[in-house]
């Protein structure tokens, strides 16, 4: 069955635990399957939020909701540090975390100011992924690479339930990286057609390596309102403020309209092989965004079930 989650950021980063729990309880009570958080160290004007700390706020504030970090700038962290944080999170909430990782690059100064040469960030991420997977087994790791040297390094305890690692990004690098290191792929700013094509390329490349990634998901910015014109205005303003982009630059990857209109648009991702869809809602209020996202989920699941019945699945 298709899973639908919600992406939230600032609403979780508040000192009042009651407010934080209120957001999460509303999402869970509305039927949403998980909550996705992002990750930035210093984005454009210095804003950001640590993805693993944000995920911890979800996992410690709600007993059942799953958390997805989508995506964590893993290449800007040392693999030993990341492995320790994940090991600790796995003790806190086994089986409730999915780690999405990405190479970054929308703001190159974020990378260089973190001590990483933007030109090497892809190779650094690959080496970090290789080491992270090895460290999370609990085995001792000795490694002499381009970026890291480890001598009999070990992280204990290993997660009792393996933490899925999905790879973000697009293009040939994302295909190769997912095929080699990922449990799946996480698309963003991606059309349904590109999602389908990328998924097929990943599965083909992984088969050659004897691997079978199985977790394919997508994050989608969605303007949501009962008035379609208002939905367009809301998401246009958000994209302009965050990414400095006019509506025509992103309308093919960020739908806007009523929950039914958005669900019909997102249904193409389900047909393209998406198992999870994260709605990043832009609405009149936070509560309205949660409620609209839940309505989208119900419509998507209903449409998916009806399709399965007609196809005999």
List the helices and strands and how they pair.
Blueprint: E1 3-7, H1 17-29, E2 34-37, E3 40-43, E4 47-49, H2 51-61, E5 66-72, H3 79-92, E6 97-101, H4 108-112, H5 121-135, E7 141-144, E8 149-153, E9 165-168, H6 171-181, E10 184-188, H7 192-208, E11 215-224, H8 228-243, E12 256-257, H9 259-271, E13 276-282, H10 286-311
Parallel strand pairs: 1-2, 1-13, 2-5, 5-6, 6-9, 9-10, 10-11, 11-12, 11-13
Antiparallel strand pairs: 3-4, 7-8
Descriptive account of the structure:
This protein has 313 residues and is of the alpha/beta class. The protein has a domain at 218-313. It has ten helices and 13 strands. It has helices at 17-29, 51-61, 79-92, 108-112, 121-135, 171-181, 192-208, 228-243, 259-271, 286-311; strands spanning 3-7, 34-37, 40-43, 47-49, 66-72, 97-101, 141-144, 149-153, 165-168, 184-188, 215-224, 256-257, 276-282. The chain has an eight-stranded parallel beta barrel, surrounded by seven helices. The chain has a two-stranded antiparallel sheet with strand order 3-4. A hairpin with a 3-residue loop joins β3 and β4 (47-49). α3 (79-92) crosses α5 (121-135) and α6 crosses α7 (192-208). The longest helix is centred in the last third of the chain and has 26 residues, at 286-311. The chain is globular.
């Amino acid at each position: 069955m298709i899973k639908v989650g919600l992406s939230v950021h600032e609403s979780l980063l508040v000192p009042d635990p009651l407010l934080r729990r209120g957001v999460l309880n509303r999402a869970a009570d509305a039927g949403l399957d998980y909550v996705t958080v992002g990750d930035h160290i210093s984005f454009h004007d210095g804003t950001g939020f640590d993805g693993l700390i944000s995920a911890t706020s979800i996992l410690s504030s709600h007993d059942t909701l799953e958390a997805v970090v989508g995506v964590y700038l893993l290449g800007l962290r040392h693999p030993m540090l990341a492995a320790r944080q994940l090991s600790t999170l796995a003790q806190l909430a086994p089986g409730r975390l999915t780690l999405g990782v990405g190479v970054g690059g929308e703001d190159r100064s974020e990378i260089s100011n973190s001590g990483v040469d933007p030109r090497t960030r892809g190779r650094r991420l690959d080496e970090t992924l290789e080491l992270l997977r090895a460290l999370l087994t609990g085995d001792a790791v000795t490694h002499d690479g381009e970026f890291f040297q480890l001598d009999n390094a070990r992280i204990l305890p290993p997660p009792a339930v393996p933490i899925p690692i999905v790879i973000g990004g697009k293009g040939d690098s994302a295909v190769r990286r997912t095929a080699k290191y990922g449990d799946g792929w996480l698309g963003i700013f991606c059309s349904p057609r590109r999602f389908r094509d990328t998924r097929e390329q990943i599965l083909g490349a992984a088969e050659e390596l004897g691997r079978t990634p199985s977790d394919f998901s997508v994050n989608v910015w969605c303007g949501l309102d009962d008035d379609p014109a208002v939905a367009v205005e809301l998401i246009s303003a958000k994209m302009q403020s965050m990414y400095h982009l006019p509506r025509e630059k992103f309308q093919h990857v960020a739908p806007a309209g009523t929950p039914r209109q958005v669900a019909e648009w997102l249904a193409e991702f389900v047909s393209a092989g998406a198992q999870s869809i994260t709605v990043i809602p832009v609405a009149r209020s936070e509560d309205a965004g949660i409620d609209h996202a839940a309505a989208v989920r119900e419509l998507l699941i209903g449409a998916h079930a009806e399709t399965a019945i007609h196809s005999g699945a």
